[in-house]
Design brief:
Blueprint: H1 4-17, E1 19-26, E2 36-42, E3 48-54, H2 70-76, E4 80-84, H3 102-119, E5 125-135, H4 137-145, H5 150-153, E6 162-168, H6 175-185, H7 188-198, H8 201-206, E7 222-227, H9 231-246, E8 251-256, H10 261-266, H11 274-288
Parallel strand pairs: 3-4, 3-5, 5-6, 6-7, 7-8
Antiparallel strand pairs: 1-2, 2-4
Helix pairs in contact: 3-4, 6-7
């Protein structure tokens, strides 16, 4: 008889090998690389809960492949993991419009969720048990699409299919607050870029998830991850938490000690990583409800 440690190693190796990857699937026509997604699924079973992951990169860079160990970590826990691309803002001249707006990017996210809802059953997922997560710019997009129900309604979907939202180290849940912070710091270059990117005060409010939080909209529970000692993301996370709680929506924050903006994201899914533990505890609690 093989020792227990050997059996556990064999089991872990087998589990790691049982992930099925389906890459570059288009969620819009005509197909282009910025409107595709990757699906990672357990090899067996059906009605698995689903993660939709939105990459960061300041709305102008990043890629769905930048997920490190996340697909394996989630499929090992019985989730289908969907990593999406979206159209990016291209800055050829600091005085010109970037072409694609943040609203259009959020529409891409909603369209990818629509595709996931319609097709994830073919990959063993449950179309009515979707969790939306994202890092940095992806955190803003995740929080916005999970609070402003117009995006999913445009796709003939309801927020009720979203069972939880996990924005990771975002600093743009309250854009007027961000703009005021940038101006206070005297960063004129960033202030100008923010004005171009987020528009006037009316548009800033419309792109802020806090604007759309209200009772009776099926807004899902939130776990807001942020770097413990990052003043901007900590402040924005606390602001989002405050507004969610005022509306009676279950929400909590997790302040990640010893992490920075990059490592908090890169380390999600690693064994013995405290933010990862908090994340899976949140998912487990949401699924039990």
């Amino acid at each position: 008889m093989k020792p227990l440690a050997t059996l556990l190693l064999i089991a872990a190796t087998a589990t790691a090998a049982e992930q099925k990857a389906h890459r570059d699937l288009p969620y819009a026509e005509p197909k282009n690389d910025h409107q595709t997604l990757d699906v990672f699924a357990p090899a067996e079973g059906k009605n698995h809960p689903v993660i939709v992951w939105i990459h960061g990169g300041g709305w102008h860079s990043g890629d769905k492949r930048d997920v490190k160990q996340k697909p394996q970590a989630f499929t090992d826990k019985g989730f289908v993991f969907v990593s999406i691309n979206y159209r990016l803002q291209v800055w050829t001249d600091p005085h010109l419009s970037p072409g694609v707006t943040i609203k259009q990017i959020a529409e891409d996210v909603a369209r990818a969720i629509h595709w996931t809802h319609d097709h994830v059953g073919d990959y063993g997922g449950d179309p009515n048990t979707i969790f939306v997560m994202g890092h940095s710019a992806g955190a803003q997009l995740a929080a916005l699409v999970c609070t402003d129900d117009r995006y999913l309604k445009a796709e003939n979907l309801s927020l009720s299919i979203i069972k939880g939202c996990v924005p990771v180290d975002g600093d743009t849940y309250d854009l007027p607050m961000r703009i005021a912070t940038v101006h206070k710091k005297g960063d004129k270059k960033l202030a100008e870029r923010d004005k171009q990117r987020f528009g006037d005060e009316s548009t800033q409010k419309d792109l802020s998830s806090i604007t759309h939080i209200a009772k009776g909209k099926h807004i899902p529970p939130f776990l807001i991850l942020h770097v413990a000692d990052h003043p901007e993301t900590r402040g924005q996370s606390q602001r989002l938490l405050q507004v969610l709680k005022e509306a009676g929506i279950p929400a909590s924050t997790y302040a990640a000690e010893g992490k920075n903006h990059t490592t908090l994201n890169d380390d999600l899914g690693l064994p013995d990583n405290k933010p990862t533990k908090a994340l899976f505890e949140f998912l487990d609690g949401a699924l039990k409800k």
